[in-house]
Amino acid sequence: MKWPWRKRYDELDEEIRAHIEMSAHEREERGESADEACAAAHREFGNVGLVKETTRDTWAYVGMERLWQDVQYGLRMMQRSPGFTIIAILTLALGIGADTAIFSMVNGLILRTLPYQEPQQLFLVNEDVPQLTSQSPWGPWFPVNSANFLLWQGHCPAIDSMALIEPVTFNMIGQGVPRQLNAARVSANFFSLMGIHPQLGRAFLPEEDQRGRDHEVVLSAQFWREIFNSNPEVIGKSITLDNTSYVVVGVAPDSFRFPELPYMTNDAPQIFKPIGFQPWEGWAGVGSFNFDVIARLKPGASPSEALAQLNVVEAGIAQRGDAHRGVAPGQFDLKAEIRPLKTVILGDARSALWMLMVAAGFVLLIICLNLANLMLVKNMARTHEVAVRSALGASRRRLMCQFFVEGMILAAAGGISGLLFAKGALQVLVRNAPFSIPRLSDIHVDPRVLFFTTGLTLATAVLFALLPTARLARVSPLEALGSSVRIASGSPQRVRLRSGLVVGQIALCAVLLAGALLLIQSLVHVERANQWMDEQHVLALDLALPPNESNTVEQEDHFSSSVLAQVRNLPGVRSAGFTSKLPLLGDSYDDDIDFQEAPHPQNKPQEGQFRFVSPGYFQTIGLPLIKGRLLSESDHGKDVALISETVAKRLLPGRDPIGMHLLWSGNAPPKPQEIIGVVADVRNTSDQIPVTAVYLPSWTYYQSSETLVVRTAMDPTSTAASIRRAIWRVDPEVAIPQERTLQNVVLSSEAARRYESFLGVIFAAFGVLLAALGLYGVISYSVGQRTHEIGIRIALGAKRGDVVRLVLGQGTKLALLGVTVGIVAALGLTRLMTSLLFGIDAADPLTFAAVAILMTGIAIFACYVPARRATRVDPMVALRYE
Predict the structure, then answer these.
(1) DSSP code of 881?
(2) CB 512 within 8 A of CB 363
(3) Which residues have a Cβ under 8 Å from the Cβ of 774 and sit 6 or more positions away?
(4) CA-CA distance, 323 to 326, in Å (whole number)?
(5) Span 505-519, pLDDT tens digits
(6) Helix pair 845-871, 751-785: axis angle to 10 deg
(7) Residues 6 or more apart in contact with residue 806 via CB below 8 angstroms
(8) What is the spatial distance between Cα 105 and Cα 453, in angstroms, rounded to a whole number?
(9) Which has the closest alpha carbon to 156: 123, 195, 115?
(10) Full-model pTM
């Protein structure tokens, strides 16, 4: 069975043959011989092939046939050059795969909408006290005062609804080992505001926000599965949390992802309970900033409109003052801030992901330039073929289509391979991603990613195939047929084109290398900033004390002392201590710092972070003593304190703090705490400035949750079981929600920067390799073209060193030009990385000097091999070379 177009071809051949035969027959009847009549009929008809080609051009499907012919021819050409084909497909697969994997992360985290109802209308609201935020550990904004929130309601017409959120914990006893649960106090309207409908039961009712009526909980889907085995009859059952009974009224859906908010200090909540406002949460004013607030704007309302309405209420609160906190009317300014929820959730991850996307794009562009160079050389070897086809009537458009299809085949093979590579790379990227990157579960290859890969493949084909094809299609048939391939391919125009492609590769590589070096140096600075700790052989266990309304500071102190006595007697334990908050794990209790001997002005408070520690804590984590002495057992019951080096320098410049007295508002009335020592600075996160830390003894303030740190003489994890038993011997109802080594705390705090630096180095290294290969190819090709010239030079007495300098000089010029262009571009582009850098300027001169030296050195190394080969040219062979 013939294909339809094949049948039509046969019919066309038959029609042409019949037409010629009829013309010849007529001539024979007029008396011409058969041979003369046949020849005359052919002359009269004209070029049979051209007539066939012209006729076929009018058929609709001839384009598809030609495309199929081009594909078949392209596949045959790929089979003739298997080495080039494999290298091209592999490099394209790596480039397209890397871009696709990074785009999958960008798509899942940035481009895809949040999994809530009309997420574009959701905003996070914060408060701002300009006189305080500059010194606040929270950063540029505070959380929200719950009483201020209540005043907002009904006074902001642009806001449809608002919900309060506060992270809390509960202890659950009676389900095996005591456990601490992550929970969230939320307004009754929280689920409806987010557009979430429980899969079982109901959400909270408005009246359940009131104190005394807040004994209902909604379970997360995961907690429901783990604890209640997905039992649908859990609705209406009671569970005991912190010695209080709560009724389960609902189960959240599996698809619900609790938003990662700035002040959520715990992992995703396992249970939710209504707010149940406490008495002290009813004081509007400046202070008690403890809640996150999510607001949903009304359709058509703008954020600026909502902000203006909020600030009207805030100004009224500031003008009234705050008698409960001793704030005079108008003493502080109070403002609101409003930001899109999506922007808040992504945080710094947005900048990092876009930076990685740009880096992956640069790598793919380098690959395209490299392949364009390779294809330029490969296609120039086919100059004679192009000349013959042009002489036989092939149009420039036809030739370009042929070579472009060959490039498309390579790009398609690379795109398919890249998609397979991207799936594996994406799993690695997600599995090794730091926990600071939100919404990791939303990352996967979806139709949008497939569309991106398809578009990227087409764009790649255009980039690396079009330029060599256009150059080849402009070859003059007369010139090509009248000269050797070597001369045709070595024309000055083509040499400049190939050199320009290499310069572009080197320039792009210089940009990548500059970014990678800046990220590496930022990581080094972060690591150095956290080298104050001796984190080896230290285990940290978070403890949640069983709730009891009669708990007092004395009871907690007795518990802590008993646990320390038990743990310190364990084999292999060198020291142990308690703290309310470990360094690098976020903010701790913040309050005003004031000194009896150096009181600050009332309108210029000095915010700091207070941490409550036991004797032995500083020695256990290895925090260095700068001045004075550390806390000891002999200080038990005394009013003493230690401060960080930053507090001493910033708040007591030029004064000796030892013997001065700190006034802490946690004591009513404030009781002077004698400063006995100054210790080294700590950070809340690895890449933040040191916090203004104040250390008070653990017997000063009651803490329901604290962390036990233990230094051992062996692997600390091997002693974890014996430490847990020692704790439970003192109190079997204490929950131990988490245990980790101090080394893991440090590594986790630096994980995001390590991740960014690792990917940046991978992209830069791959770019350097490609640029070096491109330069090597150009110089190697140039040496081959100049064999005759080099032979003459050697025959005339040129030394091998002269030949090496000649070849290296050519490569060095290209490298220096590329590096210059790249550094100029990098100086502009790296400024976009400022938010990702720590301890180094985006225009660091040493970094750019290193880029220039490194890229030039790599270029010289890439040129050295062809330079050495040039010195081995035999003059007699070269003079006979044509």
Answers:
(1) -
(2) yes
(3) 369, 370, 373, 501, 502, 505
(4) 5
(5) 888 888 989 999 999
(6) 30
(7) 790, 793, 870
(8) 14
(9) 123
(10) 0.75
